[in-house]
Amino acid sequence: MKHSTDQSLIEACLAGRREAFGQLVERYQHRLFHSLVHLLGSTEDAQDAAQDALILAFEKLGTFRGESQFYSWLFRIAYNSAVSSKRKPGSSKRKPGSSKRKTGPMSVSLEARRDASGLEPADLNPSTEPSFGLDVSDRQRLVQQALGELSEEFREAIVLKEIEQMSYEEIAEVVGIPLGTVRSRIHRARMELRQKLAAFIEAEVI
Questions:
Q1: Prediction pTM value
Q2: Exposure letters 71-110 (e unless 16+ CB within 10 A, then b)
Q3: Can you tell me the distance from the alpha carbon of 36 to that of 30, in angstroms, rounded to the nearest whole number?
Q4: CATH code of the domain in which 202 resides
C-alpha cells in the first residue's frame, strides 16, 4: 500500500483496515513534527502535539470531507493542538533549536525538515554566496537562531508560509485572522528574519 493515494488509505481505514492509517502516519509524521518544532520551540512539545494530533485525526477520520488535502486537514488539527499545548501551565518556553534532545530519528534540523517535506523555502535559506564562507550546517544553525529571535506571531507566519507552503488564504483560515493581517504579518516577518540573518552572518564571518 506504499504507493496508495491518501484517499484510498482513508477509505481503507474507514472500512476497518487500521493499518492503512499507519501508512498515512508514516507518510506525514516527520514533516508534521518538524513544522511543530518551529512553532513550539522544543522537540518534546512538538512530539506531544504531533502524537495528540495523529490520535485525534484517527478518531475524526470519518469527518474528513476531501475538500482539502489530507495533510492540510491533519495540520489544522495539529496547529490547534499546538496552540492548546502552548497555553497549558508548565509548557516548554524554549526557543526553536534550544531543546537538549538533539539525537535520534526525530532530531530537528532544517536539512531533516527539507528531506521530510521536499521543500527548501528561499526565505529560510541564508545567502549561499561563497563570500560568506559558511557551510550548510552553519547556515542551518543561523536560520534556527534567527527563527528563535522572532516573536511568536512572526515565527508562526514564517513556518506556515515558508515551511508549510500554505497560501495566504489557508493561513488566514488556520490561524483565524483577516487576510490583510496575514499579508502584513508575513511581510514584516520576512523583513525581520532577513535582518537577523544578516546580523548573525556578519558576526560569524568577522
A1: 0.68
A2: bebbbbbbbbbbbebbeeeebbeebbbebeeeeeebebbb
A3: 10
A4: 1.10.10.10
Counted domains in the chain: 2
Domain assignment of residue 184, given as a range:
109-206
Q: Of 92, 121, 154, which residue constitutes the final position of a domain? A: 92
Locus of grid cell 534550544: 98
Q: For residue 67, tell me if it sits in a domain.
A: yes
Residue 188 counted as domain residue = yes
For residue 131, give the C-alpha cell.
Answer: 563570500
Q: Is residue 192 part of a domain?
A: yes
Per-residue pLDDT in tens (0 to 9) along the chain, 206 residues: 567 899 999 999 999 999 999 999 999 999 999 888 888 878 888 898 999 999 999 999 999 988 888 998 999 999 888 877 666 665 555 554 444 443 333 333 334 334 433 334 444 544 434 345 566 777 777 887 888 889 989 999 999 998 888 999 989 988 889 999 999 999 999 999 999 888 877 776 55
Terminal alpha carbon distance of the chain: 53
